[in-house]
Design goal:
The complex is a heterodimer. Chain A is of the alpha/beta class. Chain A is about 45% helix and about 15% strand. Chain A has helices spanning about 5-20, 45-60, 75-80, 95-100, 125-130, 140-150, 170-175, 190-200, 215-220, 250-255, 255-265, 270-280, 285-295, 300-310; strands at about 35-40, 65, 85-90, 105-110, 115-125, 155-160, 180-185, 210, 220-225, 245-250. Chain A has a three-stranded antiparallel sheet, with helices on both faces. In chain A, strands 8-5-9 form a three-stranded antiparallel sheet. In chain A, strands 1-2 form a two-stranded parallel sheet. Chain B is mainly alpha-helical. In chain B, about 80% of the residues lie in helices and about 0% in strands. In chain B, α2 packs across α7 (about 170-180). Chain B is globular and about 85 Å long. Residues about 665-675 of chain B have low confidence and may be disordered. Classes of the chains: A alpha/beta, B mainly alpha. Chains A and B meet through α3 and α8 of A and α7, α11, α12, α15 and α21 of B.
Amino acid sequence: MTKKSMNAAVSLLALAAMAGGPALAAEPGAVDEPIKLAMLEWTGAQISAQIAGKVLEKAGYKVDYVTAGNYPHFQGLADGDIAASVEIWLNNVGDVYPKVLAEGKVEDIGSLGLTTKEGWLYPKFMEELCPALPSWEALNDPECVALLATPDTLPNGRFLDYPADWGSRAATIILDNNLPLTAVPSGSEGAQLAELRAAAAAKTPLVMMFWAPHFILAEVETGWIEMPPCKDQSNEHCIMPPDVNKVVWSGFAPKWPAAYEILKAFQITTEDQQKMMLAIDEKGQSLDLVTTEWVAAHEAIWRPWLDQALN
Amino acid sequence: MQHFTREEMIWAGLLAVSLLLVGLAHHLPVLRGFPAGLTLPLSEALNTVISPVFETLRPLGRGLSLTIETPLSAIRAGLAWAPWPATVLALVALALYAGGRGLAVFAALALGLVVLMGYWPKAMNTLALVLISVPLAVGIGFALGALGHLVPRVRPGLTFLLDVMQTWPAFGYLIPLLLMFGFGPAAGLAASVIFSIPPMVRNTMLGLDEVPPAIVESALMAGARPGQLFWQARVPVALPQLMVGVNQTTMASLSMVIIIAIIGGFNDIGWEVLSAMRAAELGRSLGAGLVIVLIAVLLDRITRGLAGRRRRAGGWFVAGLIVALVLAVTLPGEALLPGEEAQRWLRRLDAWLLDFVAWSAPFFALLRDAITYGLMLPMRLGFAGSASPMVWGFSLSPPVIFAYVLVATGIALGLGWRRPGRGIAFAFAALIFWTGLPGFPWPGVFLLTACATFRAGGAGLTALATGALLLAAVSGLWQPMMQSIYLCAVAVLISFAIGATLGVIAAGNDRVSALMRPVCDTLQTMPQFVFLIPALMLFRVGEFTALIAIVLYAVVPPIRYVEHGLRNARADLTEAGVQMGATKWQLLWQVKLPLARGSVRLGLNQTIMAALSMLVIAALVGTRELGQQVYVALSKADAGAGLIAGGIIAAIALVADRLLRAPDGRSGGKSGGKT
């Protein structure tokens, strides 16, 4: 089917929907104006954006992908320079997002459906050096701590924390449990990955704050530390899996009503995303190819989103 | 014992005060770090002032960004539409025209490599950015330069403004620009233009000032009106210098490609480097970085060739352009790009790097520990802090303190017997080595800075320096600031030692010199992010990795300036040295290096500037200095905090620059080396 006849077919469907469909049916809106989707820096978000975009194209929309930095792009969302961003980790949004959300310039349209995890990660070989792993008790073992110590943290062991700008609770949790560790901020995600790769390759011990899903977990053999009981259930003293949501510009729904419904229904599973990440980051396949294949093979998943929005 | 000069009296007095402060600081913690009770919420205050300002500027900014984005997307679309053989041919023809056959061959090879690596479309997006930002910067720069030339009154202010524009880290003002221009390439372009204007202004002023009076006279005799005098006499004569400005502006704006990518909105090479850095992939970031280096070197040689005005092969140039146009119309656009084989090849580099890391880990761990224990910890914690069982294996017992004081006093007196200045300098060094740079009592830092800047640059410089210190202190950034100074000091020491040595070798050996030039070009134009990945794997997150990254960048100026200075040392004086039977070593130390003093000092100056400019990049490997503050402010979109931390970095750079420049200005012609 050519694109044109596809558009025609979609319009027909839309017409049919208006004639007698359920009340949910939405107008397609400005199909000639491209919907700008944010392509953030990390592969997972790029996969989510590409799949969302390809599904929107199936519904007859034009889509532009805009590469954007995670923090600056909230300004773009608030101003409508970017129409939607489908993978926003709410544990790492900086200070602009809460502000523009409160002002009603952007709208949170619900979870992306990823099963996330956050915690303390170590390369697998460490289990030979610290037999108590994966229990957190291993980090109280002087021999294990001595392996982690560096000139900057002596006599404590070194704990590689999130970059200073992400905000992290590791130092609080270390203090809560009197662990002989010093949290060192890592500066960037790249720095954490480089350390993890080098630690696994050179067999140098390492414990760091990390999250899933992430492509590195398929590349390096790792384990998660079983955390000590939380002092209380607050975000400050306890690590809880972060929410990953979809966010649109406040002008999105009036401009593209059906697309709004589609994005609201849009979900992606952790397993699917991880498989695609592996294909792209490890096997070197192109983002476009991998996501096109997914869309071709999973019509059963996305067809209902379209039907529900258009019929 | 010789008599003290007035200068030495002052410094001896300061030394006594500092000694007293250090002694007191052991008992009065309030002297060690700036008291937290005295800090003010300056960044919040600044935010409440500037946010409304930028909100009101918003319509203007949005209008400007629309005006910029229209030609930008047109150029981008044009470059994306043209099939690569056509664009390559056009650029090769331009290279032939500007620089001859050698440059044409280089252009063909370089652009071929870009195509082969699969970065062509992104490289063209980068080129589109440069093609917009350079004319803008050149236009504004020329106008400001002409203003500075025509109205000498504005000059001091203008020069100061240019210094600030070059030293203020762009990350520090990215947020206000984002607020004003909105999301998209315009905000990044504005940052790029701000950073790349100064060389154009400086070269415009220099070029216009140096127009020989005879030419101006004869133009006036011929009855030229002011406008004619300017456009038809001064500007054409100054053209070579103006082209140097264009060249430097092009280089500066290319180095800002990464900053533009931080915001995003433009799928270019800078974005590719950032993404690769984020995934810690060396191969991909090296490939993308190489594209930037190749474009930079190519544009550098082309603009330099045009500046030299030795044009040739005009016919070939036109013929090449016509063939390129024909190709552009006949060939299909994207179909000709190669597949992703080369990308897979680049990824293989990462596997090799990991093998190397695994194999070399013990050696590099040893190197890291040696420099950390031997140099970095003593400079940070001082002797007093390092003499603990944890670090050096012995504790700070009274006999150890006594021995330190005895040895330090002994050497200081020994040195000061003949030349009191040296003795005082050593005593200061011993004192700082005792406390560590960040631990030096803060009133002492204020006092010493005020005195040094007043002696070197007068009340204005003192006001700037103490103002910056005060700003850092009351905004709670005292520790990060001292940390920055310490990190830069260590980096400058190492860079200058290595760089000057390499420069001396290169000056004496043409083959080494030829080998060094592409290495220097690469180190300076390769986005510094690329170096971070291997450094992180070998040395892990922390100050040491930051140090390595800073040194890799800051090592280039001393190589260049020392070689330049030695090679241009006056031949007659060198010859005289040889006649007097000086050995090679004596000739270097006692004749050539003193002759090249001006150039060496400028090299040191540039080393400091380079080290300071790397602070923000170093934040990515987890440092705790001002660069990190700028970076955190950027991600929190805290405009005020970014401006304050960036401003302090700029002030440190300006003060260091003036301190180093001052003695040169005073001794004037005596040093001989004109730079």
